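Kindly review these tokens for lecture notes.

. . .
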Amino acid sequence: MTLKLAVARGFAVAVVLTIVTFVYSHWFHVNPTTVALSLLVVVLLTSAYWGFRIALFTAFAAMALLNFFFLPPFGTFTIADPQNWIALLTFLTTAVVASNLAERVRRQAALAQSRRQEVERLYAFSQQLLTFDNTAQLFNRAAENLAQTFGATGAALTVSGRDTIYPSRPDLDFDRDLLLRAKARGEISESESASYVPLRLGARVMGALAILGVKLSRETLEAIGSLVGIAAERTRAIEELSESRAMQESEKLRTALLDSVTHEFRTPLTGIKASVTALLEENALDPAQQRELLSVIDEETDRLNRLVGEAAEMAQLDSHMVKLEVRPHPPRELIDAALESTRSMIAGHVVAVNVPADTPDVSFDFERMREVMVHLLENAAKYSPQESEIIISAEHNPQEIILSVADHGSGIDTVEQSMIFEKFYRGREQRYISPGTGMGLAICKVIVEAHAGSLTVVSQLGSGSVFSVHLPLRS
């Protein structure tokens, strides 16, 4: 408490005592006991709100006023009756003891309030620590959050195994030696302006914290050190778990790729090997048989070439190494080109094309989008019965144009609809009845998304599927 504040409070006490004395001596003529009790109340209130020192001054001033104005002989500090000595001493003793008790209660209440605030801040700080899911973010933000939560002028963090110190602000001034000593010894140390706290996880010391500009209880400091230590261990465990899951997913992907590529490459190689073996046999084949075997070799070689091309294209798309040649094109031109490329594949189906005359041009890379439409048409032909209808349609709204390919195949299960666009995934039924690598739809999805569009599917088991390419209309 500053001297100026103490003088102001003393003056206020003097004014109150003067008012009480004036009221009892001029307006209400009461006995000394009533006056003493009233003055004692003033002493207790002073102690409760302003502390023991001001209350002690109030007690002596009240005793002097009681003696001067209310104990005979009046108007002097002389005490004629020995019983009045006992009364004054009793009043003073009661006032001092009561003031001391009130001060103690006030301090305990203030301490309880301070501890409650510290617990609330600890809870808020622990909630903030839970938002961090990696150690780099935790180390860079924990000191700043700690300073803000507890009203400190600054904080700094260091962890075992790292030489870096993470301060709440770049210009923070603190004793680095004491911080490193707290980390090395695992003990709390305090200076005039800072506290240095080890970060603990059980008995293991994981680092240290410096907290500047605020005095906290030792229990709170230990709790802060434990919270940050637990948070550091938690984020480390999350990172290890994420790495482990990533490795597992990578291994699954690698296995799926090897299984798919091995199976798909083995099938055409088996056909080529059998045809070549037959051609090399000593028994002469007639020209028709030779032509048939050479046709098998030619078809399977094309299939191998396509498999290699799909794998290479998927790698290029994943690495964003493909540059799109985007120009405005009529959707009908794209559909006609895709139909021409799939003529042999869809020969056994009835194809219906519905493109309104007012369909606007849309900007896209023609070859890439032709590849998408070709794949959708081949899938429609591959997974729907012979002689069934394949419908190609176009529709538009002010924001986009939608190109759709609908078939009357067996449909796709609801669970699998969100998985068929993943690399190397093939439907549970389709993987056994039709050849493929599971890369086609993934390639189509990446190409369409590169045009700022989207590829969707609507399907129902037993009723067929509709794949739709959504392309934005733009100038």
In short: Residues 134-241 form a domain with the Beta-Lactamase fold (CATH 3.30.450.40). The first helix runs from residue 3 to 27. The CA atoms of residues 109 and 275 lie 96 Å apart. The first strand starts at residue 154 and ends at 159.
